[in-house]
Design brief:
Elements lengths: L6 E5 L7 H12 L6 E5 L1 H11 L3 H11 L6 E2 L7 E2 L4 H7 L12 E7 L4 E5 L5 H7 L9 E3 L2 E5 L17 E6 L12 H18 L7 E4 L14 H18 L14
Parallel strand pairs: 1-2, 1-9, 2-5, 9-10
Antiparallel strand pairs: 3-4, 5-6, 5-8, 7-8
Helix pairs in contact: 1-3, 1-7
Length: 264
């Protein structure tokens, strides 16, 4: 019999590390836990949109690997960014053809950052693809996405674990972070220093929301992977899956969230 529990899951951003979210969803689904509402930032918004559309976690992994959507990014000759996020719009339309939040099988919210006002904004209705692209628009790397009068960049800048859309609407909230940093004894170059500093900043606004989650899943050491390291896709998926199975084993109360069957 299907449970009436409302289960929300918030998925962090983290570039290609977000593929680990698919492993987490795979593990939860195998345990009989299916979210009834999803919220995502950046890579979490992309994974969330595909999952809420109805693709299984393994199907999404296959799509990401086979399309290698990073190859669709083209240089943006302007002061705003070096790559055009809009160049992958056609790819999104192939796999999300309805382009409408209301057509998703599971309700979804995505967060982006209004760069002019310095505020986080949330989208859960209307056109889908624009907000998803805005949510994953890394500032300085991609041109901002313009929606209405808003110049929008990566949602993870201000809120990399967007639990706010789930607050008050879900009985339980599962937070998932894909940026855990391993300890490092020696920072060998400036690139690693900058990358590590950026991840630390992202994690700060994740961990500030951790206490508001009923359950929090974070595969260890994912911060060692590069933002665009697509060759590690299967490894990242497996890391998320294995950590979820370990987490369920060590936190059996999460099994009280079982709803046994997927939402229609």
């Amino acid at each position: 019999m299907k449970s009436n529990l409302k289960i929300g899951i918030a998925l962090s951003g983290g570039g290609v590390r977000g593929i680990s979210h698919l492993g987490v969803l795979q593990g939860l689904n195998e345990a009989g836990i299916f979210p009834t509402q999803v919220s995502g930032a950046s890579a979490g918004a992309i994974a969330g949109a595909m999952y809420c559309h109805g693709y299984s976690p393994s199907e999404i992994l296959k799509i990401i690997v086979e399309t290698n959507y990073f190859k669709f990014l083209r240089p943006a000759i302007s002061w705003k960014g070096i790559l055009k996020m809009s160049s992958i719009e056609g790819l999104f339309k192939t796999y999300l053809p309805h382009n409408d939040f209301s057509k998703l099988k599971i309700p979804l919210s995505v967060t982006a950052t209004d760069i002019k006002k310095g505020k986080a904004v949330y989208f859960s209705e209307g056109e889908l693809i624009g907000p998803v692209m805005a949510s994953s628009c890394i500032p300085g790397m991609f041109e901002p996405i313009v929606i209405g009068n808003k110049y929008l960049v990566d949602g993870g800048v201000l809120n990399n674990l967007p639990i706010e859309p789930l607050d008050g609407t879900c009985d339980y909230v599962i937070g998932v972070n894909c940026n855990h940093l391993p300890e490092e004894s020696d920072i060998k170059n400036m690139r690693r220093l900058i990358e590590r500093s950026v991840i630390m900043t992202m994690n700060y606004n994740v961990y500030s929301r951790k206490s508001q989650c009923d359950f929090f899943i974070e595969a260890p050491g994912l911060g060692k992977y590069g933002v665009f390291d697509i060759k590690k896709a299967s490894e990242l998926f497996q890391a998320g899956y294995e950590e979820t199975m370990r987490y369920i084993d060590q936190n059996p109360t999460i099994l009280e969230l079982k709803n046994l069957e997927k939402n229609p």
